[in-house]
């Protein structure tokens, strides 16, 4: 048996790592830009055509249907132009007359009171990468002395507001906020089945470096250690698995040790014959071995046990711990598009629509594997992701999600 397995069995307490963290950001935070920067001198230094072009776009906005607002028509290459356009849309939204009560509205008024500004902002942001959106936010602060994310938070509420905020966050900061939201929620139904589903979705699908960035952001934002807060809301084997993932126990090596793979596969198989001991073995192996090594372990396991590791976990475990282990195996095998397609379908077809889950998956996977997720979704459910979003979501939130799906 591999040395790390022997050590894990001798000391399964999984002591938490309490060393101090480096709280400094790699780049300068948007919030750190001085708020007292004057607007006029900077605007004078910019291209004079920016505002004229933005004004022309504004004249055309009210005559376009939201559905026909193509990304090419609402996007500029220059982040300064995007920032200017977003500012003008925000000003329009802030000074728009109050919405007429639903019972007093006529069908012909729908276009007038639809959140066309929010949809237009979403179209701009969805066509940009996260790095480009952060640059737009940085320019916005310089131009107008206001933080774009905070401004969006105050102007737009509900599902659309949550989508726009997600688009303007960095991946690590957004994941940290989502984890904290799940951990601190008093509602056990924050995910598709339990609040643990959000924790599983994030911690079991991000790589080691991403989790360490999330861990630092969590500490910076909320003043507490992620693993400490996780220990308050999870128990037993699931908590131990999360601890190993969060403290970064996974090996980074790309080399495969065939002998170790053989020993680990046989140890996992023999562990299935014990009572309660197999959970610790699976936790240690799946949270500490590199992905290439785990693929070798799974191949060896299938030869020896004549069953796939994913099916073995499905047979041997239950509850959220089973879901977490299966998610890691799917991640190792490159099957995350299947995992996320199922999550998206569940978010729209459950007893209630889970907009937070829907937004989180589409935003976080938009630059990774959203195209594959869309293909898998249609293969699994014989209906496109766009069609389901159109059927189950409404108004400007639906238009924002569609803009994100179509942009990638």
From TrEMBL:
Gene3D superfamilies: Annexin (1.10.220.10). Signal peptide: none annotated. The lineage of its organism: Eukaryota, Metazoa, Ecdysozoa, Nematoda, Chromadorea. It holds the Pfam family Annexin. This is Annexin. One of its GO terms (cellular component) is nucleus. It comes from Plectus sambesii. Keywords: Annexin, Repeat. GO terms for molecular function: calcium ion binding; calcium-dependent phospholipid binding; phosphatidylserine binding. Belongs to the annexin family. InterPro entries: Annexin, Annexin_repeat, Annexin_sf.
């Amino acid at each position: 048996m591999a040395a790390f397995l022997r050590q894990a069995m001798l000391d399964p307490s999984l002591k938490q790592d309490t060393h101090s963290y480096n709280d400094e950001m790699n780049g300068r935070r948007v919030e750190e830009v001085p708020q007292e920067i004057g607007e006029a001198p900077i605007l004078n230094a910019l291209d004079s055509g920016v505002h004229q072009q933005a004004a022309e776009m504004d004249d055309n906005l009210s005559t376009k249907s939201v559905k026909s607002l193509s990304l090419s028509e609402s996007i500029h290459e220059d982040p300064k132009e995007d920032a200017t356009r977003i500012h003008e849309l925000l000003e329009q939204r802030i000074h728009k007359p109050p919405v007429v009560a639903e019972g007093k509205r006529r069908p012909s008024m729908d276009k007038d009171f639809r959140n066309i500004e929010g949809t237009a902002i979403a179209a701009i942001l969805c066509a940009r990468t996260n790095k480009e959106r952060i640059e737009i936010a940085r320019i916005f602060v310089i131009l107008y002395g206001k933080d774009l994310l905070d401004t969006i938070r105050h102007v737009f509420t509900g599902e659309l507001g949550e989508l726009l905020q997600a688009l303007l966050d960095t991946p690590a900061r957004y994941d940290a906020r989502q984890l904290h939201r799940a951990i601190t929620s008093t509602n056990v139904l924050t995910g598709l089945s339990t609040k643990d589903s959000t924790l599983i979705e994030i911690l079991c699908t991000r790589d080691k470096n991403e989790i360490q960035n999330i861990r630092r952001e969590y500490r910076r934002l909320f003043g507490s250690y992620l693993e400490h807060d996780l220990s308050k809301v999870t128990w037993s084997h699931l908590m131990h698995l999360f601890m190993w993932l969060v403290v970064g126990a996974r090996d980074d090596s790309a080399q495969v040790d065939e002998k170790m793979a053989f020993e680990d596969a046989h140890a996992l198989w023999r562990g299935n014959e014990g009572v309660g001991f197999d959970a610790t073995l699976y936790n240690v192996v799946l949270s500490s071995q590199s992905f290439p090594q785990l693929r070798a372990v799974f191949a060896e396991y299938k030869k020896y046990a004549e069953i796939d590791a994913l099916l073995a976990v499905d047979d041997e475990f239950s509850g959220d711990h089973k879901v977490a282990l299966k998610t890691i195996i799917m991640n190792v095998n490159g099957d995350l598009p299947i995992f996320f397609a199922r999550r998206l379908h569940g978010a729209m077809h459950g007893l209630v629509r889970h907009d937070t889950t829907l937004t989180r998956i589409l935003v976080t996977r938009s630059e990774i594997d959203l195209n594959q997720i869309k293909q898998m979704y249609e293969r699994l459910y014989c209906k496109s992701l766009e069609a389901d979003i159109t059927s189950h979501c409404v108004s400007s939130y639906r238009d924002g999600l569609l803009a994100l799906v179509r942009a990638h």
